[in-house]
Each structure stands twice: as structure tokens, then as C-alpha cells.
Design a protein that fits this description.
The chain is α+β, with helices and mostly antiparallel strands. Helices cover 49% and strands 22% of the residues. The longest helix has 77 residues, at 4-80.
Length: 565
């Protein structure tokens, strides 16, 4: 008879050894998993950090270079107009000052301008010309000995870059106030030599580091939970455990990486690619040579500011979401992204140039409409496009020529798409900066705009405000109670309104009337704020506006002045 104890011992130790081997393998696998997990977390965070930093650097450099380029173009234009050097420098400075102060900043970003007095450095080596944050620093003298919150000398570093290569990147620590922790800022500076202007743009990079820490924090519990589950399953059989561990590890991390990529590269408002994602995908297309030919389009909403001003910013957001959905439907299979604000970019990849041309023509025709808060809001779009590789061979060149073409479309009256041509390089973009108020300021007569339905006043120029002896537009609205009825002297009102209605009605039934512009002519008196009666002549045009409905554009001139002229 066999000794049962000896049999037990014989069977027991191999089982113990097997269990020990399983435990050792599991510990090794867990150790490898934890180490690789940490490495993956760190690498993913560093990669995303570097990508974001490079994109932000490119954005800063592009912004400053564009400012310097625009200054140079404007200077040449003013010289061609015969302006003196003194007039040119003053006009360039005012334009740059207004641009810096109306810039919409985010993430601590802003632009500032210093004027170098002594390229050798030291005390009073430069003067702060323009600075939006705070504006009180404008006019302050600067010293290269000044230290930042970390004891560095950023002004000396900036001056060294200017003397060496005309500009570059540098960083410094900035402490907003005594109760705040120092934050690191990255800046790009460049010299406009003609006036010794150093134009700089910088932003905080703390948000990028916070994003890196957040990524690591979010991944850590997920990976720990996965490891524990795999350890329990691995206790049953080492081979299956190793297989499950490898499969799940790769699959889950890939999914997590996809989620992180989506968060970094997707525009949260519209759900399409943001600028970072758009640039990354575009570069991949060009690097991998996926497509031999492509067409790129820059486009935006015409007069987008009006939608925000009239219907509110939530309506503006709805318009951006509507346009994003429209672009996805209009360009199936294309690369669609939001470049920022109301500017979008589409990369058409269809191999047929005829198909691409038809898609563009169809997309930009007609008026777009969406429903918001029970109202149908309409808008149109303008765009500029260029072909790869016939018109540009790099992503930077493509974006540049598309931008030229977009502004050419704007200059051509909007609601159109223009293909890039070399002549567009010399486009004078300052024409887009004219405002209705500025244009009417130079008119020797009053300009009034009001709605036909309720006679609500929408605009009056300075001449008309002064004619009524009011101090400003708000004073004018208060005096007239914001209605055209109170512009006309009350004893003349009935006859004026009857005459206007009669003339408009006759124009509507006229055989040659296009129903686009209807005109009237009346004479009446106005009562100024001080009680003076003045006779005026009124030339009116009734037009339809997609946002305000039917509105009157009226030119008013004092009768005695008109007779004198």
C-alpha cells in the first residue's frame, strides 16, 4: 500500500511551485504593466504638450510676422499716396495702437510694442509704446537690468535676440500681483527696423502644463483598475492572463489615446477639427502623400458680427454649428476644421478637379438658413481656395494663398468663392476696415437709418446729431424717442408721412421697379433741441435687409445750406 502522505507531498509541492510561478509571472507582468503605463502616460502627456507648444509658437510667430508685414505694406501704400514720413509714422502708430487694444485676448495672450533707443542696453534703453495689460505702463522707460519673478533678465534676452537675428522666442516668469504665484510666459519678438519698434506677442503656457498633469491624473486610476482585473483573471492560468493582459492593455490604451486625441484636436463647439487637429491632419496628408492633388478652402460667415449683435452670441454659436454641419454634408469625405472664430477650412481630396469645382460652386451658392429661438436666421459665406500642388507645395504656402483668396472674395462684395491668383498677393486689406460710421463722417449732410415697420432709428451720423444740437447719438435717441416720427416737426408730420407712402406705393407698382430700391423726396421742418426751426430736404431709399427687414436710408440736408451750395 502506498503511503498517502508521500503521495500528498509529491502532488503538493508541484502545485505550490506552479502557484509560485504563476504569482511570480503575475508580479512580473504587473511590474512591466505599471512601468509601461507610467512611461506611456508620461510620453503621451509630453507628446501632446510638445505639439500644443509648437502650435502656440507657430501662432505667436505668424501673428507678429503678419503685423510687421502689414505695416510694411501699409507704409508703401502711404508713400505712394505722397504722405510725408512724419505723417506715415503717425498713421502707422495709430493703426497699430488701435489693433493692439481691440485684439480679443485669451489664455493670458496679448501684444505689446517697445521702441529701442539704445541697442547697447542699460537703463532707459527702450520705451514702452503700446501695452494693453496694463495700459498705465505705456510711456514707461525700460532697463535691461530689470529682473522677472525668477531673477532672470528678459529685456536683456529680448535685446540680444534683436541684435543677433532681429527677433526670436524667449520666456520669462510673470507675477500679476503679490498674492499670485509666478506664471511662465512664452513670447515671440521681432524688430521693425524703420522705426526701431520691437513687436512682441506672448501667452501663458501654464494651461499646457495643467493639461499634461490632468492627462496623467485621469489615466492613473483607469490603468490601476485594469491591472487589478487582469491580475485576478491571471491567477487562473498564466497563458490566458498574459494574452488578456496584452490584448486589453493595447486596446484600452489605444482607446484612451483616441479619446485624448479627440479632446486635443476637436473643436468643442462644432464637433469638427480645431486648428491644431486641422494642421496635424493636413500635414499627415502631405507627408504620407495620400493624395496627389487637393484643393484647400478658407471660408467664413459674411458679416458674422451682425448675427452676434442682433440676435446674441448664442445665436452666433448656433450659426457656427450650422455651418460646420453644412460643410460636412456639402463636402463628404473632405477634411473639415474650424480655424478660429467664424473662419473654417476645408481640404477637398476627391481625385477629380471637376468634382471639386462643382462642390465648391454648389456650396457657396444660395443663402444659408437655420432656426434659432423660433426665428429663421439667414447668412451667406465667402471663401478663397487654392490647388495643391499646382499653386502651393507646403501647408504654410497653402494657408497663405488660401488666405489671400479669401480676402479677395471679401473685397469683391462677399457671398462668393475666389480661386487664388498671384495678383492677390498685393491685395489692400485696409479697405475692409471702413465702417459705416467712418464713411458717413465725411459727408456734408445728415444720414439717418430707420426701420419701415415701426420707424425705429438705427443710425444717425454726427452731422445730423449736430444739426439737432444734440451732444451724441444717445442724446439724439433720447430727444427723438428713437423714432422717425419725432425727427419731423409735429405740424409737418402727417403731410410728410402721406407723401412718403404715396411715393413708395407709386414706385412699387411702376413697371420698371425692381422692388429692391424704392425712393422718395420730401421737404419739412425740424425742431432742434434749443427750440430752433430749420427747413430740411429729405432724400430716402427703402431697401430690404435680411436681418432688419425693410429699412429707410435717408440723406438730410438743411435747405438754406443746399440753396447756398
Amino acid at each position: 500500500m502506498k503511503n498517502p502522505f508521500s503521495v500528498f507531498q509529491k502532488n503538493k509541492f508541484p502545485k505550490r511551485r506552479s502557484v509560485l510561478i504563476v504569482l511570480i509571472v503575475l508580479l512580473e507582468l504587473n511590474g512591466v504593466f505599471f512601468i509601461s503605463s507610467r512611461l506611456f502616460i508620461q510620453k503621451s502627456a509630453r507628446t501632446i504638450h510638445q505639439q500644443l507648444l509648437e502650435v502656440e509658437q507657430e501662432t505667436l510667430k505668424s501673428s507678429v510676422d503678419n503685423i510687421i508685414r502689414d505695416i510694411g505694406i501699409t507704409k508703401i501704400h502711404l508713400q505712394q499716396q505722397g504722405k510725408s514720413e512724419y505723417e506715415i509714422s503717425n498713421m502707422l502708430f495709430r493703426e497699430l495702437y488701435e489693433k493692439v487694444h481691440r485684439y480679443e485676448y485669451s489664455n493670458g495672450r496679448y501684444i505689446w510694442v517697445n521702441e529701442i533707443i539704445n541697442y547697447g542696453g542699460g537703463d532707459n534703453y527702450a520705451m514702452r509704446l503700446i501695452h494693453p495689460n496694463p495700459t498705465s505702463s505705456e510711456g514707461m522707460m525700460l532697463s535691461t537690468k530689470t529682473k522677472d519673478a525668477a531673477g532672470n533678465t528678459p529685456y536683456q534676452e529680448e535685446l540680444d535676440l534683436i541684435n543677433k537675428s532681429g527677433g526670436g522666442f524667449y520666456s520669462y516668469y510673470y507675477q500679476p500681483d503679490a498674492d499670485s504665484d509666478p506664471v511662465i510666459r512664452i513670447s515671440y519678438c521681432a524688430l521693425y527696423k524703420d522705426y526701431n519698434w520691437v513687436i512682441c506677442e506672448g501667452e501663458d503656457i501654464s494651461s499646457i502644463r495643467e493639461n499634461e498633469s490632468s492627462i496623467q491624473k485621469d489615466l492613473r486610476p483607469f490603468l490601476l483598475y485594469t491591472d487589478l482585473i487582469l491580475s485576478v483573471v491571471g491567477a487562473l492560468i498564466t497563458g490566458i492572463t498574459a494574452w488578456i493582459l496584452t490584448r486589453n492593455y493595447t486596446k484600452d490604451l489605444a482607446r484612451r489615446n483616441e479619446e485624448l486625441n479627440e479632446a486635443v484636436f476637436t473643436d468643442s463647439l462644432t464637433g469638427i477639427l480645431n486648428r491644431t487637429g486641422l494642421i496635424a491632419e493636413f500635414d499627415r496628408f502631405l507627408h504620407d502623400r495620400i493624395y496627389k492633388e487637393m484643393t484647400g478652402i478658407y471660408l467664413d460667415i459674411d458679416d458674422f458680427k451682425l448675427i452676434n449683435d442682433i440676435y446674441g452670441h448664442n445665436a452666433g454659436d448656433a450659426a457656427l454649428r450650422h455651418l460646420a454641419g453644412f460643410l460636412r454634408d456639402a463636402f463628404p469625405g473632405a477634411l473639415v476644421g474650424r480655424n478660429g472664430g467664424d473662419e473654417f477650412c476645408v481640404i477637398l481630396c476627391d481625385p477629380s478637379p471637376e468634382v471639386r469645382a462643382k462642390q465648391i460652386e454648389k456650396a457657396f451658392s444660395g443663402v444659408k438658413s437655420f432656426l434659432y429661438d423660433g426665428r429663421h436666421i439667414t447668412y451667406t459665406i465667402s471663401g478663397g481656395y487654392a490647388d495643391y500642388p499646382s499653386q502651393a507645395v507646403t501647408r504654410e504656402e497653402m494657408m497663405t494663398v488660401m488666405d489671400h483668396a479669401l480676402y479677395a472674395a471679401k473685397m469683391d462684395g462677399k457671398h462668393t468663392a475666389k480661386q487664388y491668383s498671384p495678383a492677390m498677393k498685393n491685395i489692400k486689406r485696409d479697405r475692409l476696415g471702413f465702417s459705416f460710421r467712418n464713411m458717413t463722417a465725411g459727408i456734408s449732410g445728415g444720414v439717418l437709418v430707420y426701420q419701415e415697420e415701426n420707424e425705429k432709428i438705427l443710425f444717425a451720423n454726427d452731422y445730423l446729431i449736430a444739426l439737432f444740437e444734440c451732444e451724441n447719438f444717445d442724446d439724439f435717441l433720447n430727444y427723438t424717442h428713437s423714432t422717425f416720427r419725432n425727427v419731423v416737426y409735429k405740424e409737418d408730420l402727417d403731410e410728410v408721412e402721406r407723401s412718403i407712402c404715396s411715393q413708395i406705393d407709386r414706385a412699387k407698382i411702376s413697371p420698371d421697379s425692381s422692388m429692391i430700391r424704392l425712393e422718395d423726396y420730401v421737404e419739412y421742418r425740424i425742431l432742434t433741441k434749443s427750440g430752433k426751426l430749420r427747413e430740411v430736404i429729405d432724400f430716402g431709399s427703402l431697401v430690404h435687409d435680411q436681418h432688419y427687414g425693410n429699412i429707410f436710408y435717408v440723406f438730410i440736408q438743411e435747405k438754406k445750406k443746399q440753396n447756398a451750395d
